[in-house]
Amino acid sequence: MKILWFIPTHGDGRYLGTTDGARPVDAKYMRQIAQAVDALGYEGVLLPTGSSCEDPWIAASTLLPVTERLKFLVAVRPGLMSPTVAARMASTFDRLSGGRLLINVVAGGDPVELAGDGLFLDHDTRYELTNEFLHIWRKELAGETVHFDGKHLKIDGGKVVYPPLQEPHPPLWFGGSSDAAVDVAAKHSEVYLTWGEPPHAVKEKIAKVRAAASKEGRTVRFGMRLHIIVRETEEQAWKDAEALIRHVDQAAIEDAQRIFARFDSVGQQRMSQLNQTSRNDLEIYPNLWAGVGLVRGGAGTALVGDPDTVAERIKEYEELGIETLILSGYPHLEEAYRVAELLFPKLNLDTPSIPKGPSSISPFGELIANVKPPTSKSGS
Questions:
Q1: Which of 50, 205, 346, 376 has a CA between 20 and 30 Å from the CA of residue 212?
Q2: In whole angstroms, what is the distance from residue 340 CA to residue 323 CA?
Q3: Residue 78 DSSP label
Q4: Which domain does 324 fall in, by range?
């Protein structure tokens, strides 16, 4: 199992649905999170993409010089980027980072946001374009000169002069729950990424993707993106889960759900369906809580509990085929430490050993600075 964390380039805080306890995300704060995650043994970080986020490529580039081994999962946006330019960006980033790039393929899911970026294609047509985009992107990074005349894209002599370090290209991660998305993932992705759903739903999705990939003569690995609230006791974890949404009122929920309803993303529709019950009935599977999705788009579920219980839930997903988790928690700096300290020892992780502090702490603390040294004896 590999664990990645999340860089909240759209803002961070202690609570959802309020400015109370909110903190702006600037270069210094992103650097704090990235350096902490790098030292704690996380595999990498996901940087989100969208009109409400800082640009992920530029943000990730600023974090390269201040980290040592951390990998960066950064989005390419078919329809918003040229595949040749995106291939050149990926190759440059991969070389200059020493092979620390992972690629997140994002076709988009909000027609209003996409229109603001100049893209006016319906859901399935976007995935047709994405298929063409990735066909070109992969060939160019493999060293080929591409001549392509498709339904949506045309390239005449596309080429990447300087190849990436990772061969044949940085790994492609792909999420999407629709039939169109699964078809593209089966053709192109190395890792299929799902949001956190109950195990039976994840099992069905994995089987569907595996079957589609098999028809293409390929195999795909699987990852999951979700939030986490792990505490020393089950009681404290659930108390903190409720505290996270204590400022979220019904008006805020209705406003958020109204926005999510316009999305044509099947994944977002599945997330929204998980929290349509009573606010007091958001535990949709033991220790899987849908409270985050009341007001947050995208990943809307969290694992909640003590370290042993959360580890058991993670192992359930691992048995289904989930090999990688992308986790996050509010606030992201403090929760990165908490997860590493409480949960990592309970899991079979492919991570470097985490540096441990001293086995005991001095009882004097800052008082030790005020203790007068012993008076020297004459002649000593």
A1: 50
A2: 17
A3: B
A4: 2-370
